[in-house]
Amino acid sequence: MAEVNLIGFMCNWCSYAGADLAGVSRFHYPPNIKIIRVMCSGRVDPELILDTFLYGADGVFIGGCHLGDCHYLEGNYYAEKKIEMAKRLLEAAGVDTERLRLEWISASEGERFAAIITEFTEEIKALGPVKSEREELESACMAAADYRLRILATKERELLEGGNKYGEVFTMHEMAKLLDDMVQEVYESKRILLKLKKPMSVKELASAMTLKPNEVFRRILDLKRHELIEIHEIRDNTPTYLVRALNEGGLTE
User: Does residue 244 contact residue 228 with C-beta atoms inside 8 Å?
Assistant: First the structure.
């Protein structure tokens, strides 16, 4: 099996202490994982997770307090929702979602920590290194930073229980569909932005992204409305588009 690189984000109050106990107690686990201590698992943002994959991680592990035991009351609930959002983005980028794992580990569970890390390492070794194209992961990173997805990642409980500002309460099925549709829309828009570092037409974009031209055109209209792209030139009666910052010297190839 190929060697793999794993990154672990561990809650200071529980899972990091569990990792420390595993070391003190000499419970063995593979050395592939590099551990980063965070104050709360809820602070591990989808953008950080996607960046970690973009810069070479083959697997990412997040360890937090058991539900109900969070030092900050609801941090692990937010962690759970953020991981779900990150998995949707990984799937959009063609990365196996099994490469991202969330577990609740207390400070007294050193042996369990070692067992879980060993199991996770073997699973990632079986999958091998990440083979997704860099552009796809970069698009997912950009999507994770989008304010719409950031809001949805943390407002799910509010929308399910209290509804939106119009009093509309979402069912679980409706919420899942909303999240799936929004992730796909934002991800495709970010891919278009990356591809428009050079002039391309709707037809060329559709071919490069294996999407229908009408789907690409909808994204183009939205990006143009937000002044992120502009028409570069008319080529054979067909407009080509370019990222606006490129024309203004703010973005380079």
Answer: yes
pTM exceeding the 0.85 threshold for the entire prediction: yes
Q: Are strands 229-235 and 238-243 parallel, antiparallel or unpaired?
A: antiparallel
What DSSP line would sit under 205-252, residue for residue?
A: HHHHHT--HHHHHHHHHHHHHTTSEEEEEEETTEEEEEEHHHHTTS--
Residue 56: CB atoms within 10 A of its CB come to 10
Nearest to residue 58, comparing CAs of 7, 101, 116, 93?
7
Residue 218: which CATH number?
1.10.10.10
C-alpha–C-alpha distance, residues 200 and 232, integer Å: 9
Distance CA 78, CA 187 (A): 22
Structural contact between residues 5 and 56, judged by C-beta atoms closer than 8 angstroms: yes
For residue 90, the domain's CATH number is: 3.40.50
Q: Which of 13, 83, 10, 97 is nearest to 45 (CA)?
A: 83
The 10s digit of each residue's pLDDT in 127-144 is 999 988 899 999 999 999
